[in-house]
Design brief:
It catalyses: 2 GTP = 3',3'-c-di-GMP + 2 diphosphate. The chain is of the alpha+beta class. About 75% of the residues lie in helices and about 10% in strands. It has 2 domains: about 190 residues; about 150 residues, Reverse transcriptase/Diguanylate cyclase domain (Alpha-Beta Plaits), CATH 3.30.70. It contains 10 helices and 5 strands; from the N terminus they run ααααααβααββαβαβ. Strand 2 and strand 3 form a beta hairpin. It is rod-shaped and about 150 Å long. The two termini are about 40 Å apart. Bound molecules: guanosine-5'-triphosphate. Guanosine-5'-triphosphate (GTP) binds next to strand 1, helix 7 and helix 8.
Length: about 375
């Protein structure tokens, strides 16, 4: 259950990494789109407008050469178009995030151009009456044309420069912002990953502690506490399902002599071998435990006394044939066993006491036997 929860945490974390990456991808795309969009329209209009001063000079030159209807019409069209372009640029600039101080001088110059256009209009209106240019009108047209062309060319070129600089600043800023967002995101993911890793380690440590607290250190078998836990659950299951439950209590015979004759470490080795033998003889569903010293127990769920006796007999034979560590080769090892089955409405204490009494009887009757 806990493993599932821990796996769920990791799956959740990976999902979050995915969501963060998707969000970051979306942010990058949007940032690129917005950075480009803000100035692109303005630059496009400005590039178009920059054609106007050249066109004005060309048309005026042609008009001064031959003041015919075509050139007059071209000039009229320019006089109509130039204010529209200026107004368009003015709107763009006022809506932009540029500081007004940066573009105001150029806008003022363009406003001046707008204010001079009616004068130009009046002069060509006079010319249009008879398609004739007096020397005075010619001089006026030339001077006014040059003045407007220079003012337009200068303003547009300075604005163009300004937009390029602003666009470059914006790109640099977005670059830094993107880097900051990426670093923050990474830090967030690393921090969350670290916390998850810590939780995972804590969980593992708790599992290890729990395992150790329920395990006999020498043999690796379940300890008394674990057997009691398992017995409690087995009684509940047995009662619910109406199945029998048996217990074997096993005590090595004259184990003290082995310790005394060959030393405590060899005695430990014998205990470990005996533990492995019990595990080999019992079923997977049986709970094999070391109760302490040289006393062991096997809890047999779903088993009656006959099955427990059969297991006890198998163990008696196996122990007699169990090879002992080389120095104790000559010594024989036997075990006494008390066998009991839980009665109706019984509890583990009663079952244990009965098995213990029978173990005592087996000892009293000469050892190397099972009673029950
Ligand atoms: N090597 C080793 N010996 C242990 C351990 N725990 C208990 N013993 C020894 O087990 C022996 C038990 O001795 P007794 O209670 O007299 O029992 P016994 O000699 O087996 O005699 P019976 O049970 O009457 O057949 C003692 O010598 C304990 O020191 C252990 O973890 N390792």
């Amino acid at each position: 259950m806990r493993r599932v929860r821990s796996r769920g945490l990791w799956v959740g974390y990976l999902l979050m990494v995915g969501v963060c990456l998707a969000a970051f991808g979306f942010y990058l795309t949007e940032a690129r789109r917005l950075v480009g969009a803000n100035y692109t329209a303005m630059v496009t209009d400005l590039v178009r407008a920059q054609e106007d001063p050249d066109r004005l000079r060309l048309v005026l030159d042609s008009l001064l050469d031959s003041p015919d209807r075509i050139h007059l019409a071209q000039l009229n069209e320019l006089i109509w178009r130039i204010p529209l372009r200026i107004q368009g640029l003015r709107n763009h600039l006022l809506r932009s995030d540029l500081a007004p101080a940066r573009y105001t001088p150029y806008l003022e110059e363009l406003t001046y151009v707008e204010s001079r256009l009616p004068t130009l209009e009046q002069v060509i209106a006079r010319v249009g009456i008879d398609n004739q240019l007096t020397p005075e009108e010619g001089r006026q047209l030339r001077e006014l044309g040059m003045e407007l062309e220079e003012a337009l060319a200068w303003s547009y070129s300075e604005l163009n420069e300004l937009l390029h600089r602003a666009s470059a600043d914006q790109r640099r800023f977005m670059g830094r912002l993107t880097l900051a967002v990426a670093v923050l995101l990474l830090m967030l993911l690393v921090a969350i990953g670290g916390v998850l890793l810590m939780l995972h380690r804590l969980h593992d440590q708790r599992e290890t502690m729990r395992h150790l607290s329920l395990t006999d250190q020498l043999t690796g078998l379940n300890n008394r506490r674990r057997l009691l836990q398992e017995a409690g659950q087995a009684f509940v299951r047995g009662e619910r399902q109406g199945t029998p439950l048996a217990l074997l209590l096993l005590d090595l015979d004259h184990f003290k002599q082995i310790n005394d004759a060959y030393g405590h470490p060899l005695g430990d080795e014998v205990l470990i071998r005996f533990a492995r033998l019990l595990e080999a003889c019992a079923r997977r569903m049986d709970v094999v435990a070391r109760m302490g010293g040289e006393e062991f127990a096997i809890l047999m769920p779903d088993s009656d006394i006959a099955a427990a006796r059969r297991l006890a007999e198998r163990i008696l034979h196996a122990v007699r044939d169990m090879p002992l560590p080389s120095r104790a080769h000559a010594a024989g090892l036997t075990v006494s066993i008390g066998v009991a089955e839980a009665g109706e409405n019984g509890d583990f204490e009663r079952l244990y006491a009965q098995a213990d009494r029978r173990l005592y009887r087996a000892k009293a009757q000469g050892r190397d036997r099972a009673e029950g």
